[in-house]
């Protein structure tokens, strides 16, 4: 096995890239290339981040963001999987409803944000609705395609074996749709986090987004705090994506696509 193919080398390479970006950020700040009124130095931002991590109100904001994101993804994702499965199993229902689903999928969530604020105000309910709405449509379509993507050979084999109803669904349809659904859930989780931050940033609901907005409005002295909060949201996004990718690989270890990923990572 070559050294460049090892997991440790890839990890060190990623850490090295991050370190290089941070070092470049600091160098450009010290050299005056970056305007100090718009871009604080890396050291100032990291120092502020360290201070923020010791404050209880930061963790309260993190909890509010996680709670809104989790509930929205759970509600929207669950409904999407159920509706997508039903539409995928019924061709007539699929042909009747898919134009509406495709249309609503293109509606920007930010376009309905004012309506959500009018109905619920800057509350948890507003965030949950926006996140659920945003993740529902793409995950529904992904589930439909997964349910309808059963291999013809497998379908014919199931017919020969006279598999029907629940047994056919659990042994044929679900294994075929699982990779599509898993990918859709992973993408929906990342999109849901973005929508949560947007709801807080624009809608004024409590969370990391509101912390960013508050620090921006506080003036240039709070610029390092603004960047610290932005870095936190970026780290949260990486953690969410990595966690769901890990779960996808573990839960679908039996599927060919995950075996190929594992073999390439070895």
TrEMBL record:
Q: What Gene3D superfamilies does the record point to?
A: MetI-like
Kindly list the places in or outside the cell where this protein is found, as annotated in its UniProt entry: Cell membrane
Which spans are transmembrane here?
12-34, 68-89, 101-122, 128-147, 177-205, 225-247
Q: Which UniProt keywords apply?
A: Cell membrane, Membrane, Transmembrane, Transmembrane helix, Transport
Read off the Pfam families from this record.
Answer: BPD_transp_1
Task: Give Gene Ontology CC terms.
Answer: plasma membrane
How would you describe this protein's topology in the membrane? Multi-pass membrane protein
An individual GO BP term: transmembrane transport
InterPro entries for the chain = MetI-like, MetI-like_sf
Q: Which PROSITE patterns match?
A: ABC_TM1 (PS50928)
Please list the residue ranges annotated as the ABC transmembrane type-1 domain. Answer: 58-248
**Is Membrane one of the keywords UniProt gives this record?**
yes
Matching entries from PANTHER family are given as: ALIPHATIC SULFONATES TRANSPORT PERMEASE PROTEIN SSUC-RELATED, ALKANE SULFONATE ABC TRANSPORTER-RELATED, MEMBRANE SUBUNIT
The record's similarity note reads:
Belongs to the binding-protein-dependent transport system permease family.
Q: What is this protein called?
A: ABC transporter permease
